[in-house]
Write a structure and sequence with these properties.
This protein is α/β, with parallel strands linked by helices and 531 residues long. It folds into three domains: 49 residues, no CATH class; 196 residues, no CATH class; 196 residues, Rossmann fold. Strand 19 and strand 20 form a beta hairpin. The protein is globular and about 80 Å long.
């Protein structure tokens, strides 16, 4: 008995080693993601244990930061500011200027566009523009015609990799990331710049960016990123080659330098340190001439926004307005309660001062004609007929979902369908302004008129028409939504589903019947109005 127990608990080292190897092989072949995650985390630990490294002095950042916004005005800026920036950097001896932002749409003033194009064209520095690829059609949400795709590809064709060398190419081999369509800069800017490179990046399963694709295939050509083209021009445009072997991409060759990649052409990023490791200078300081002459001589200057201004890589840490804007509105309203506040935001924010002002106009992200439309709304020339497509919370703690950060690569949708107005109703919380809310410049009496009772197998329903009578002096617009309800009263919140939209155009002094019209008569939603 003693011998049996001893042999049972005595494991030979060779057996243990072979068993461990066998288990790892089985997990690897089965594609278990935990092994990949462990490998990624050990890479992070190696970077952290190594500590920060000193960056190359040849690369500096010109940042559009919070200081720049406070000094130069709200973002986006007119192109004339970028023309001045390119001119100043060129005069200071910058060798390469790379834009990590896109000039994708025309400026409101065509002269600003022309000024920037001329400055780029005649700059002594090599100006490299950034753009991006739509990687797949499924996530795009709308259709891009093939003619438009071909036109965009033709625009960036001169910036493709000039040579691809296959050491050994297997039948049907195609290791590259293939994009659906590029979104390039306007033609006048692309033609003026020396090159254009994409700034697409992707994250690993845990949401961390560790890789950079050094090549993306668009159409039949292979295109390099912004970083590669900036380095290429800085090093004198030596021979640029993509080398492909039997099992995939091997490297990018730039003269006598080789940049190693994995088999699909990605570079593992060697992070040199935390944020602000590279020297950075506020664009406002550059435009105002506050920097020492020669700061940018023989440098690669990368121009872009910081995470203080915009980012799609993470959510906001708070729903409060940035800086001291709440204090500003509160102090102005204390002096003049008849203040109208225009909120220019694309997502909900907390407005603790909403009941202290005469009106709040939510302008969203209105585009280039937003100024004209907003002026019409504020002057009463147009009805602010928009309705809120989301609920605006009264307090941050009222939000149904406060965290959307994945944990260990997993985002748990524990709230199920209890989001938005469903969540507020289920929790008995009154939002500051609910889904569908919106005021206008008229008053009306709404009447529901039953029209018919139609048999539908074992169920029956009533259909109604909507009519409204506006005030004698002011026209308006009204939008309603007919909703269906199933189940018991207690299950209504979870099972209520959107129905059919119908609208009313109400002419001053008349009673108007139902009409299928566009319910959003303007881009704005008037959240609150006083007397």
């Amino acid at each position: 008995m003693r011998f049996f127990l001893k042999s049972l608990f005595s494991i030979h080292p060779t057996f243990l080693t072979l068993s461990t190897i066998l288990v790892v092989i089985i997990l690897f072949l089965s594609g278990v993601s935990i092994l990949d995650l462990i490998e990624l985390k050990t890479y992070d630990l190696r970077i952290l244990s190594r500590g920060p490294l000193r960056p190359s002095p040849e690369v500096v950042l010109a940042t559009i930061d919070e200081k720049s916004i406070e000094t130069e005005g709200r973002w986006p800026w007119p192109r004339s500011k970028f023309a001045a920036l390119v001119d100043l950097l060129s005069r200071d001896g910058a060798r390469v200027i790379g834009f990590d932002i896109g000039f994708l749409e025309p400026d409101e003033n065509a002269q600003n566009d022309q000024a920037l194009a001329n400055t780029i064209k005649h700059s002594s520095a090599a100006v490299v523009l950034g753009y991006f690829f739509h990687m797949n059609e499924a996530n795009l949400g709308y259709l891009i015609k093939q003619q438009e795709i071909d036109q965009q590809l033709k625009r960036i064709k001169d910036s493709k990799y000039p040579l691809i060398l296959y050491r050994e190419r297997a039948t049907g081999f195609g290791p590259f990331f293939r994009a659906h369509a590029p979104k390039s800069n306007l033609a006048m800017f692309t033609e003026a710049a020396v090159s254009s490179g994409y700034f697409n990046l992707g994250s690993d399963q845990d949401g961390v960016i560790r890789w950079m694709p050094l090549m993306i295939q668009g159409g039949e050509d292979l295109f390099p990123p912004l970083a590669v083209l900036c380095a290429w021009h800085y090093l004198g445009k030596s021979q640029l080659i993509v080398r492909v072997g039997r099992y995939g991409v091997e490297s990018v060759q730039m003269g006598d330098r080789f940049i190693p990649t994995d088999e699909i052409g990605r570079l593992l990023i060697n992070y040199l340190g935390p944020a602000k490791t590279f020297p950075r200078f506020s664009v406002s300081d550059i435009l105002s001439g506050k920097l020492v002459r020669g700061t940018f001589t023989d440098k690669i200057v990368l121009v872009g926004t910081t995470d203080e201004i915009e980012s799609e890589g993470f959510d906001r840490s708070t729903l409060s307005l940035a800086g001291r804007q709440d204090e500003l509105v509160t102090r102005i309203a204390a002096v003049n309660p008849r203040t109208v506040v225009v909120v220019n935001a694309g997502a909900p924010v907390i407005m603790p001062w909403a009941q202290q002002v005469a009106a709040v106009v939510w302008a969203w992200l209105p585009g280039q004609e937003g100024g004209d439309v907003l002026a019409d709304v504020l002057l009463g020339l147009a009805e602010p007929g928009g309705r809120l497509p989301t609920s605006l919370p009264a307090a941050e703690a009222d939000c149904p979902v406060l965290s959307t950060t994945p944990v260990h690569g997993t985002l748990d949708y524990a709230e199920a369908d209890l989001i938005g107005y469903r969540a507020y109703a289920a929790a008995g919380i009154q939002p500051a302004f609910p889904f569908g809310h919106g005021l206008g410049y008229t008053t009306c009496v709404i009447a529901w008129r039953p029209l018919a009772k139609t048999s539908m197998t074992e169920r029956s329903r009533k259909t109604s028409s909507l009519s409204g009578s506006p005030s004698p002096s002011c026209s308006g617009a009204l939008c309603s939504e007919t909703r269906s309800r199933t189940g018991t009263q207690n299950s209504f919140v979870a099972e209520s589903k959107p129905g059919t939209l119908s609208g009313l155009n109400m002419i001053a002094g008349t009673e108007t019947g139902p009409a299928m019209e566009d319910c959003a008569k303007s881009m704005t939603s008037c959240c609150r109005s006083g007397s």
